[in-house]
Amino acid sequence: MVGMLRRVYLDNNATTPVLPEVFEAMRPYFGEHFGNASSIHHHGQETRSAVERARDSVASLLGCQAAEIVFTSGGTEGDNLAIAGLTSPGDHIITSTIEHHAVLHACKHSEETGCEVTYVPVDSRSLVNPDEVRRALRPNTKLISIMTANNETGVLQPVEEIGTIAAEAEVYFHTDAVQAAGKVPIDVQRIGCDALSISGHKIHAPQGVGALYVRKGTHLHPLFYGGRHERSRRAGTENVPGIVGLGKAAELAMQGFKRGDHEKMSALRDRLQKGILAQVEAAGVNGDGAPRVPNTANIYFDHIEGESILISLDLKGLAVSTGAACSSGAIEPSHVLIAMGLRADRARASIRFSLGKQNTDEDTDIALALVPETVARLRELSPACKGV
Ligand SMILES: Cc1ncc(COP(=O)(O)O)c(C=O)c1O
Q1: Is 251 in the same domain as 305?
Q2: What's the pLDDT score for residue 329?
């Protein structure tokens, strides 16, 4: 009898499975509790209070007041809302070369509509230097947008220092914390940001829901015009089941921090990383030496295409990524790895392993058995790596 392929999912920076507790919390809001949260009657009141409970939970996760949370459709909307909502034509924006496309393309659009944008570089570990941010300030700088954690390398940026620079210069500071939320504790007061975006599907809530923290008193132009939902900051009937799921995922993330789950996660990631590096030559960690979220290891395997490794591993049941999910399949190497100064061939030879709450020691064992043998086989086939 042919055995079932055991599938191991190590691509949690692309998306995470909805946790059973999250799904159970959402379930009644697809049926029994179906009201429009803006309706005055019983059905509306029921869903309104569920939305407000979720707002409290998300606010606790981020260390802010509930009224400062705007529910969105995800990280992309939060990033766009912050960038377009906090700037006007003629303003100058400072961002970095390693941001997610949700920020980079929103900034490109702002350039087309009359803003000026400075893209500060990063060092070889993918770290933004706060001094570069300070040097980029101009009299018309309105906004700094620098991510908390990078989606490809997992590297944590010096956001608290950047927050201080923004406060001293009296400019807005937005941080894309989509890959940091649920992985490291976040406190908007400590970061000193005016806006911070998170996404449900990166923290075991469903796809298509997220939140933007907007500091009280901050004037934000909306992206959408319509009803007065979300205190006129985001028009549109609330996605009640999604919001309830996000609230539950936020609660579970906070419980996880208390239990020390992130330490267990980094032990698992470190075992995976060390095990791979011990067995594979001409491989290394992108972003090594910089502080990182506990779940990510981005590793290059010289002389082979990351795409070939990804496909071979997928055939054996192991799901990994060559970088940002949205650029998978594209021929260009990752803009993040190139910005760090990697040669294009090394950037193309890189694989991102990202763990989630559902991963176990056994998953790591399976990955440790599959990755070295797959790399060795592909290198045997590759004329470029004779002598490796
Ligand atoms: C750093 C970062 N920002 C923004 C996004 C976009 O979030 P969403 O998929 O919820 O639109 C992602 C998703 O990959 C991300 O990793």
Answers
A1: no
A2: 53
Distance from residue 222's CA to the centre of ligand 1 (Å):
20
List, chain by chain if needed, residues with CB within 6 Å of any ligand 1 atom: 74-76, 79, 100, 102, 147, 151, 176, 178-179, 199, 201, 210, 325
pLDDT, tens digit, 9 for 90 and up, residues 181-206: 999 999 999 999 999 999 999 999 99
Decide: residue 381, CB within 10 A, 0-12 exposed, 13-18 middle, 19+ buried. Answer: exposed
Whether this model's pTM surpasses 0.70:
yes
Each residue of 131-154: pLDDT tens digit?
999 999 999 999 999 999 999 999
Digit-coded pLDDT (tens) for 12-59: 999 999 999 999 999 999 999 999 999 999 999 999 999 999 999 999
CATH code, domain carrying 68:
3.40.640.10
Distance CA 296, CA 268 (A): 10
76 CA → ligand 1 middle, Å: 6
247 and 57 Cβ atoms separated by less than 8 Å: yes
Q: Partners of 211 in the beta sheet?
A: 71, 198
Residue 326 is a catalytic residue: yes
386 band by pLDDT with thresholds 50, 70 and 90: low
- 240-259 vs 261-279: helix crossing angle, rounded to 10: 80
Range of the domain at 373: 8-17+260-385
